Amino acid sequence: MISVLVLNGPNLNLLGKREPGVYGSVTLDEIDLLLTSEANSLDVKVCCQQSNHEGGLIDAIHATVGTHQGLLINAGAYTHTSVALRDAIAAVNIPTVEVHLSNIYSRETFRHYSYIAPVAIGQISGFGAESYRLGLQALIHHLRR
Ligand code: DQA
Predict the structure, then answer these.
(1) Which helix (H) or strand (E) holds 50?
(2) Number of structural domains, the chain?
(3) How many A from CA of 1 to the centre of ligand 1?
(4) Average pLDDT value over all residues in the chain
(5) Cβ contacts of residue 41 below 8 Å, gap of 6+?
(6) Which domain holds residue 76?
(7) What pLDDT, on the 0 to 100 scale, is given for residue 68?
(8) Pocket of ligand 1, candidates 102, 127, 133: which has the most ligand atoms within 8 Å of its Cβ, to mutate?
(9) What mean pLDDT is predicted for residues 45-52?
(10) Are 97 and 72 in contact (CB under 8 A)?
(11) In whole angstroms, what is the distance from residue 20 CA to residue 73 CA?
């Protein structure tokens, strides 16, 4: 069965309490539940992890080798800063979909550049928690092509 690592970066553990006007009231646990239910419908497995640390995220990406066939990632602010995360995805060469709750292109200009986008299959941004569900569907569609 296809297994997907869902990786969330810094501050996403605070979803629900964090800037609800921007990110909504849904918690990360609720997003994990939504993805688990979507995974059941798609007949795939998801493994949901979160870290506030760049190195922890990189270790998790390295550990996908031989375990997961796809990566769904919201790298949070590291999206806009981390060459190291980008290099980790390129190094393990795992099919990756990048997601964001907010529309990063309608916000501050420093959020308009993503280091992840060039090494991802694609990006879904701006649909709140639905970005994750859409991202999982797109990733599975790609893996089953
Ligand atoms: C985010 C957008 C990033 O710019 C921000 O730093 C986040 C969350 C989003 O999901 O909208 O932490 O990735």
Answers:
(1) strand 45-50
(2) 1
(3) 30
(4) 97
(5) none
(6) 3-144
(7) 98
(8) 102
(9) 98
(10) yes
(11) 20
